[in-house]
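Example record

One chain of 112 residues, shown exactly as stored in the release files.
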Amino acid sequence: MSRILGGIGYALSPTVIWFYACTLLDVVNGTAFIVSRSMATKLVTESNMGKVNSLFGVIEALSALACTPAYSAFYRVTIEIFPGAFNILGVIVTLPAILIYIWLYIRRDVRA
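Predicted structure tokens for this chain:
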């Protein structure tokens, strides 16, 4: 949720001060990788922890490798029209992950 609020705030900031103030909304965004890794390790046996952590490392590296050029290209295309469009793109890309977390949370409550 921090990423969504921060991304929307960055994209729609009318002044530089508002832009920097949106950092307060986006401050928790960096913990998403930690939480995901923690949740995944709770779902596997101890003997598979190394595999899960390796998978997360590979996915994080590959996503950075793919997303950085994609975001840069998107920014170059939209800078004249709407400079904050890449922030909105980040929000849109984050939405499926949030929906999956919510679905898993609801499913966990149903099983309990």
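Notes: The helical segments are 2-12, 16-21, 32-42, 49-78, 85-111.
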